[in-house]
Design brief:
This protein is of the alpha/beta class and about 260 residues long. The chain has a single domain, classed as Purple Acid Phosphatase, chain A, domain 2. The protein is built from eight helices and twelve strands. It catalyses: P(1),P(4)-bis(5'-adenosyl) tetraphosphate + H2O = 2 ADP + 2 H(+). Belongs to the Ap4A hydrolase family.
Length: about 260
């Protein structure tokens, strides 16, 4: 069995199929880890969602920013933007089934045997591994439960700093923001939701989340979607995945298998 981690698909079913053909993916033998952002901006979000769902246990999916956006749009809490390409999903006969399946996905996936951990965006430096799992479960349990609509109604991007005393929606919003939106932050770990682009182009004091000093999860091999386009050349223990790229994972390490 071979495990491949896949970067953001962004609703591009045709390119996803080309990528899987290039790596010779066999759903009966191999496994895919999807780093979130399966949908939106591309022309075929519905096909992507249906295909990945159909893979069953052959696919692991962590939630990204676009999945939370889709769930919020579907409930009428967030308006569609001109860039959104979610209409097919929202009008599909299996819409409710697909959206429920999404709500049951995780924010983090860890394989102890491989020693690789998958998230969409990142893990705050002040969280230990056990805290990262526990905090993710707090959001996952709400999304998968009867109170998921209230969580999505109260979703905000403005909670950018972790504090152990955070409670209620502020706490859940920070956890969700960290897992699905974090890219750059300052040395104290405050998230910057607007910064994007190469590391060398950022102002002084701003750094990729994985370069924050004294991170408590420095022992993990972290795979995540590189939607910020870090262009970072020294990422030991970190594996930023460009969109529609495949990273082959094994106990001996990881290597880029293909890029679409």
């Amino acid at each position: 069995m071979t495990i491949y981690a896949i970067g953001s698909v962004n609703g591009d079913y045709q390119r996803l199929m080309q990528l899987l053909a290039t790596i010779g993916f066999d759903p009966l033998e191999d496994r895919l880890w999807f780093a979130g952002n399966l949908v939106n901006h591309g022309p075929e979000s519905l096909q992507v969602l249906r295909y990945v769902k159909s893979l069953g246990k052959a696919a692991v999916v962590v939630l990204g920013k676009q999945e939370l956006h889709l769930l919020s749009v579907a409930l009428g809490y967030t308006p569609m933007t001109p860039e959104d390409t979610l209409h097919e999903i929202l009008n599909a006969p299996d819409r409710d089934e697909l959206l429920k399946w999404l709500r049951l996905r995780s924010l983090i996936h860890h394989d102890a045997k491989l020693n690789f951990t998958l998230v969409h965006s990142g893990i705050p430096g002040e969280w230990s591994f056990s805290q990262a799992l526990t905090f993710a479960y707090e959001v996952e349990s709400v999304l998968s439960g009867s109170n998921y609509a209230a969580f999505l109604e109260n979703r905000k991007q403005d909670q950018s700093r972790w504090h152990a005393k955070l409670r209620g929606w502020k706490r859940l919003n920070f956890i969700a923001n960290a897992y699905t939106q974090m890219a750059y932050c300052n040395e104290q770990g405050k998230l910057d939701f607007n910064a994007t682009g190469p590391v060398d182009a950022q102002p002084s004091g701003l750094m990729p989340w994985y370069r924050v000093p004294n991170r408590l999860t420095s022992q993990l091999n972290l795979v995540f979607a590189d939607d910020a386009h870090f262009a970072d050349s020294d990422c030991a223990g970190f594996y930023p995945l460009p969109a529609l790229s495949a990273l082959r994972l094994s106990t001996s390490g990881a290597m880029i298998a293909a890029m679409s």
